[in-house]
């Protein structure tokens, strides 16, 4: 109630603004506001969320992921964030976006405070306008001419600009926050307000009362009366900090108010290890006390009183006072619309200040170690790489008990949290480890001439020869869920192809992944390349890993379709190899064998329904609906407890049908199957192209002609799948006999289905690198560039061109030159296939 009264008291203020503020501030704001808000992230459409934020202040957050628990937050807006590029006037669209984000966080139950610059810039805009208007009137009266001469504007004193701009700046903030039913209050402070004990208590009490009434305090230094800036000598200590600029003000305010998080927005992405823009400058993700000795600071920003050095010193002072700090870019057009909310959500934005230094390397350091180790790996002899893989295969069987013990811990912790198909993926067994070891030895055998293999040789001209050879891709990032057996498979393929490898496994397999990675590094150590394979154990979000475009060359997701889609969406500048869905089809032709069709359907659907190569849609030729073949398939599915979903056309043939499928483009990943009816092989192909995912598709058909599909009443299907009898609709007819032979039908299907894997009379489950003889796979790709289908060793290689000459220059091949192009194909060394 008090909050409502307080807001109602503020509302008339917007209607009593000074005339100049109405013309220069609100009128411009209302012109910009609709488009500005349309082009920023639509936070206002998010439903109201109350965040449980109970945290005792006293110690800063150790990790970014903990920032979502921040209750009280200070957002400091630097001068470069608030002002336009010409330093005269405010960046209204940017301000509207910031206000919207602050409002969303406030409405989640957080306590938001703003420390803002901009009064000087706003005042400068107003005073320039007044001076120009005054000069134009005087010149017109003095000269009597219609045109104005060029007018010089005097240098404006900053304190005068601040005095002229404070009220207009606050009026603008008030109007913006009102759009989200939030009230704002202005507080101007000076250094004395913090050093005088009575004033300090008064300020503290005022701020707490405003926060209690759900009001956003907007704090600024009283630039109209503050003395000129002095050196930041007092920032060297940790027990005292003077309010000389808004950086020190924000730090002092954060500590005084015991805030959980201070967000400092500037015009740079964060803190760099050298001045931004220099060739070797790298953004520092996490900054720790004591690291400032290794950082070279550049000049201060184009506007404002403090540079990055002042920001870092103020941030460290606040950190020691128990407040977490993030310095980030608030001016970048692509991220400013969600930079504040991204930081609070724990995303890797800007530089995070932490007092807790992790025991291991950062993910950036791990990626660099993987690249360095991968390059060393690529220089080894093929026999040495094969020896590493053989040793890893031996370790999988020799250390079987330790691996299964770790896996048992994962299974016990996952019990009740993971669905049955995922638990099955998570589980390791002696047979699985033996199969893994066999697959690894296959990879070792096939790796003998993988790297450096000559694909093409050309004599370009006399004594000028060109070769195309295979080389590793670089650094691979493989992200996998609930699949610890994926780790040694992918590691072996990376070793064989000479690639550095960064692994990110699901936390549900943490114990299994840890021991498997240790065994992998033990195998790598026999040739001194232990760091080539890295396991990410930090709290890195997948989205953050996908932004390391300067460190990672290829991302390979292994997991659910949702994981793959999320990675494809998050990857910025890094290619993603994989498939988002495994919607595999099997078409049972009118001339299929009863026994074969039943066996193939059972194996494809029931052997491992959670696999990406499991059958999801069964297409039945219409002539089979009244035959023993169809009855037998349905009986088998009933015995295997497969839930049937009827496609639209199949459902139309039944008076009572199974549950009609919601979508024909569904990957069930469980004992569920969609059945649909088609009239011909061409219709089956069209259906696959429309609803499939280009993964694996199968035709079941036989050689020779088959008798017409005669009528057989198939109530057994209805009894088994519907728990009751249900006659066929009388509209069902036998259909026409195909004029093609079955072999022609099969070849037609194989040639015309545009999928990564197309089979004839074989289970969809054969779509696997191990079963293809590749040893293992990093995944199945449905893309059309570089690699397709099960991706084994060959898919992890690219090429480079080697040109060997003797003082050859292009000018010698000109019209009047002495040399001519030959472009002769030369024999390529035979590949070792043993």
Short account of what is shown:
By secondary structure, the protein is an alpha/beta fold. The chain has 26 helices and 24 strands. α13 packs antiparallel against α16, α16 (430-446) runs parallel beside α17 and α22 packs parallel to α25.
The helix fraction, in percent, is 25-40%
CATH topology of the largest domain: Carbamate kinase
Strand order of the largest sheet: 3-4-2-1-5-7-8-6
CATH C-level name of the largest domain: Alpha Beta
- Averaged pLDDT: 81
Annotated CATH homologous superfamily of the largest domain: Acetylglutamate kinase-like
Number of β-strand runs: 24
Count, helices: 26
Ranges where pLDDT stays below 50 over 5 or more residues in a row are 1-52, 229-241, 301-305, 703-740
How many domain modules?
A: 3
CATH A-level architecture of the largest domain:
3-Layer(aba) Sandwich
N/C terminus separation? 84 Å
How would the global form be characterised?
globular
Radius of gyration: 35 Å
Largest sheet: 8 strands, mixed
Structural class: alpha/beta
Strand content: 15-25%
What does it look like?
Helix 9 runs parallel beside helix 10, helix 13 packs antiparallel against helix 16 and helix 13 crosses helix 18. The N terminus is likely disordered. The protein is built from 26 helices and 24 strands. Helix content is 39%, strand content 15%. With 834 residues, it is α/β, with parallel strands linked by helices. Pfam families: AA_kinase, Aldedh. This is Delta-1-pyrroline-5-carboxylate synthase. Keywords: Amino-acid biosynthesis, ATP-binding, Kinase, Mitochondrion, Multifunctional enzyme, NADP, Nucleotide-binding, Oxidoreductase, Proline biosynthesis, Transferase. It is found in: Mitochondrion matrix.
């Amino acid at each position: 109630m008090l909050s409502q009264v307080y807001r109602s008291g503020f509302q008339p203020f917007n209607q009593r603004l000074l005339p100049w503020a109405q013309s220069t501030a609100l009128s411009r704001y209302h012109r910009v506001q609709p488009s500005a808000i349309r082009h920023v992230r639509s936070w206002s459409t998010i439903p109201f969320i109350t965040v449980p934020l109970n945290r005792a202040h006293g110690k800063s957050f150790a990790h970014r992921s903990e920032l979502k628990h921040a209750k009280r937050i200070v957002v400091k807006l630097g001068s470069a964030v608030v002002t336009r590029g010409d330093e005269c006037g405010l960046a209204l669209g940017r301000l509207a976006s910031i206000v919207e984000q602050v409002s969303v966080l406030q409405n989640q139950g957080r306590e938001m405070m703003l420390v803002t610059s901009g009064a000087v810039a706003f005042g400068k805009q107003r005073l320039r306008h007044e001076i120009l208007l005054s000069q134009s009137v005087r010149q017109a009266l003095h000269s009597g001419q219609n045109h104005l001469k060029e007018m010089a504007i005097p240098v404006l004193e900053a304190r005068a600009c601040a005095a002229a701009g404070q009220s207009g700046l606050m009026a603008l903030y008030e109007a913006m926050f009102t759009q989200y039913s939030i009230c704002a209050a202005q507080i101007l402070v000076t250094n004395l307000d913090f050093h005088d004990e009575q004033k300090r208590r008064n300020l503290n009490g005022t701020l707490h009362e405003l926060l209690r009434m759900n009001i956003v305090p907007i704090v600024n230094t009283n630039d109209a009366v503050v003395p000129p800036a002095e050196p930041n000598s007092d920032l060297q200590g940790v027990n005292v900090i003077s309010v000389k600029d808004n950086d020190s003000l924000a730090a002092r305010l954060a500590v005084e108010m015991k805030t959980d998080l201070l967000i400092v927005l500037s015009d740079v992405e964060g803190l760099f290890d050298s001045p931004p823009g220099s060739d070797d400058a790298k953004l520092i993700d996490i900054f720790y006390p004591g690291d400032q000795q290794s950082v070279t600071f550049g000049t201060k920003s184009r506007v404002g009183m403090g540079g990055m050095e002042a920001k870092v010193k103020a941030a460290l002072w606040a950190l020691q006072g128990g407040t977490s700090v993030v310095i980030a870019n608030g001016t970048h057009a692509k991220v400013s619309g969600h930079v504040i909310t991204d930081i609070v959500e724990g995303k890797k934005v800007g530089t995070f200040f932490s007092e807790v230094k992790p025991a291991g390397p950062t993910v950036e350091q791990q990626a660099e170690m993987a690249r360095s180790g991968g390059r060393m790996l690529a220089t080894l002899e093929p026999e040495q790489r094969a020896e590493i893989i053989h040793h890893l295969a031996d370790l999988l069987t020799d250390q079987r008990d330790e691996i299964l013990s770790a896996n048992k811990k994962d299974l016990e912790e996952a019990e009740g949290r993971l669905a049955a198909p995922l638990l099955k993926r998570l589980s390791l067994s002696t047979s699985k480890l033996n199969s893994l070891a066999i697959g690894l030895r296959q990879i070792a055998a096939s790796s003998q001439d993988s790297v450096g293999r000559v694909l093409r040789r050309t004599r370009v001209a006399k004594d000028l020869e060109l070769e195309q050879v295979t080389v590793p891709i670089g650094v691979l990032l493989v992200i996998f869920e609930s699949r610890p057996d994926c780790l040694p498979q992918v590691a072996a393929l990376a070793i064989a192809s000479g690639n550095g490898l960064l692994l990110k496994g699901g936390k549900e397999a943490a114990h299994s992944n840890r021991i498997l990675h240790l065994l992998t590094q033990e195998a790598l150590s026999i040739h001194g390349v232990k760091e080539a394979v890295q396991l990410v154990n930090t709290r890195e979000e997948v989205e953050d890993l996908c932004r390391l475009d300067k460190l990672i060359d290829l991302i390979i997701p292994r997991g659910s379709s949702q994981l793959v889609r999320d990675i494809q969406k998050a990857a910025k500048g890094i290619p993603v190899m994989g498939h988002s869905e495994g919607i595999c089809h099997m078409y049972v032709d009118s001339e299929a064998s009863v026994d074969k069709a039943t066996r193939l359907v059972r194996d494809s659907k029931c052997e491992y329904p959670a696999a990406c190569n499991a059958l999801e849609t069964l297409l039945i030729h219409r002539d089979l609906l009244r035959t023993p073949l169809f009855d037998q398939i349905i009986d088998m599915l009933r015995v295997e407890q497969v839930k049937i979903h009827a496609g639209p056309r199949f459902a139309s043939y039944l008076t009572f049908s199974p549950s009609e499928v919601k979508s024909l483009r569904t990957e069930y990943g469980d004992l569920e199957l969609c059945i649909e009816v088609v009239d011909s092989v061409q219709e089956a192909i069209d259906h696959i192209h429309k609803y499939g995912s280009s993964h694996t598709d199968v035709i079941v058909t036989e050689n020779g002609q088959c008798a017409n599909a005669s009528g057989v009443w198939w109530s057994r299907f209805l009894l088994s799948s519907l728990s009751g009898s249900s006659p066929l609709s009388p509209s069902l007819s036998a259909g026409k006999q195909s004029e093609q032979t079955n072999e022609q039908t099969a070849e037609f299907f194989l040639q015309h289905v545009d999928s990564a894997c197309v089979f004839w009379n074989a289970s969809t489950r054969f779509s696997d690198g191990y079963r293809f003889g590749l040893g293992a796979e990093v995944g199945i790709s449905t893309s059309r560039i570089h690699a397709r289908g099960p991706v084994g060793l060959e898919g992890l290689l690219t090429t480079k061109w080697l040109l060997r000459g003797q003082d050859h220059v292009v000018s010698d091949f000109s019209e009047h030159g002495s040399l001519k192009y030959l472009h002769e194909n030369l024999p390529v060394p035979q590949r070792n296939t043993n």
